[in-house]
Write a structure and sequence with these properties.
Shape: globular
Strand content: 25-35%
Order of helices and strands: EEEHEHEEEHHEHEHEHEHEHEHHEHE
Radius of gyration: 20 Å
Oligomer: single chain
Number of strands: 15
Largest sheet: 7 strands, mixed
Structural class: alpha/beta
Length: about 325
């Protein structure tokens, strides 16, 4: 099969098409003939040599795919109601940038009715991440307020739509007025241009001094101190990336006084059983929203797999709104 491999750590030009052996599904796994592969920030980090795959996982980048089931563990597939020939999308720990990809059966979901393979490939990484962190870890409830740092990212556009669909008020930050407008069009109630406005002051103004209940933070670093300031009593900040740095200094007295929770997680190394529980929740709670059109995939650009370097360059430019997807012709 053809696959996109990292020939050298560093700039996007290190990505190249190569021939690889066809992967073989093991117990509890199936093989997908991939039509489309989602592109995500962790792929960029892996390409730079900063995010190695878990032990035993393919060295190929790629954490989400969509395509057709070719073969697999018959008993596990039967238990999940999946058959050869079904269209599925899947969250994987690596190996997604390839014409064929092995995935745990429990991490596969049916392609929602009416969605293309490109749209389906844009779903798993962001939807698993947002569900696990915003709704499981941070326990966002209807009637609460969510602040999303980076509302125009793939994670951001997913968080906006899911939080709004589940009855929360959504505030986002973005780096341009155009991105702010795009977030509002997707359902955010308020958008803050963090380059021209102070998001702490704006969040306090919008909430009339109460503060926000949950912050979804992809920046960390100096942002954590500012998020502590704008959280409401019993507020929760959940950190899912550290684009602004790994060290943070904040007012611990505010954490005590407001009874705040600062938490975080990474999804890639978690066991299959953990991800399977998220998949089940998504199928029950979110897939009907996708089928009805209440929540929609947001695709910024697609690239042929051979042009994966261009896809990574676009992601690093921060010019996109939504997801970037690679396509395969097999």
């Amino acid at each position: 099969m053809q696959a996109v491999e990292i020939s050298a750590f560093g700039p996007p030009q290190g990505l190249r098409l190569a021939e690889r052996p066809l992967p073989q599904p093991g117990a509890g796994e199936l093989l997908i003939r991939v039509a489309a592969s989602g592109v995500n920030r962790p792929d960029v980090l892996q390409r730079k040599g900063h995010y190695a795959p878990p032990q035993g996982v393919s060295d190929l980048p790629g954490l989400e795919v969509a395509g057709v089931v070719e073969s697999g563990d018959a008993a596990a597939m039967a238990q999940a109601g999946i058959r050869v020939g079904d269209r599925v999308c899947a969250l994987v720990a690596g190996g997604g940038y390839a014409e064929y990809c092995v995935a745990p059966v429990a991490q596969c979901l049916p392609v929602p009715e009416g969605l293309s393979d490109v749209e389906a490939a844009s779903l798993p990484e962001t939807f698993f991440t947002v569900w696990s962190n915003v709704f499981d870890r941070a326990r966002l409830q209807a009637g609460e307020t969510l602040l999303v740092q980076g509302g125009s990212s793939g994670i951001g556009v997913t968080a906006i739509q899911l939080a709004r669909a589940r009855g929360a008020t959504v505030i986002v930050t973005a780096g341009t007025d155009e991105k702010c407008a795009a977030c509002l069009a997707l359902g955010a109630h308020h958008a803050i241009n963090y380059k021209s406005q102070d998001f702490v002051a704006e969040a306090q103004r919008i909430t009339e001094g109460r503060g926000v209940d949950v912050v979804l933070d992809m920046v960390a670093g100096p942002y954590v101190a500012r998020e502590v300031e704008c959280l409401a009593e019993d507020g929760r900040a959940v950190i899912i990336a550290v684009q602004g740095g790994v060290k943070a200094e904040f007012n611990a007295a505010l954490v005590l006084r407001k009874r705040l929770t600062i938490t975080g997680s990474t999804l890639r190394p978690r066991p299959v059983a953990f991800k399977a529980a998220i998949a089940q929740a998504l199928r029950e709670q979110v897939w009907p929203l996708l089928a009805s059109g209440a929540v929609k995939p947001v695709i910024h650009s697609t690239f042929a797999a051979a042009d994966a370097a261009q896809a990574h360059a676009l992601m690093e430019s921060n010019q996109h709104v939504g997801k970037i997807v690679l396509t395969w012709t097999t």
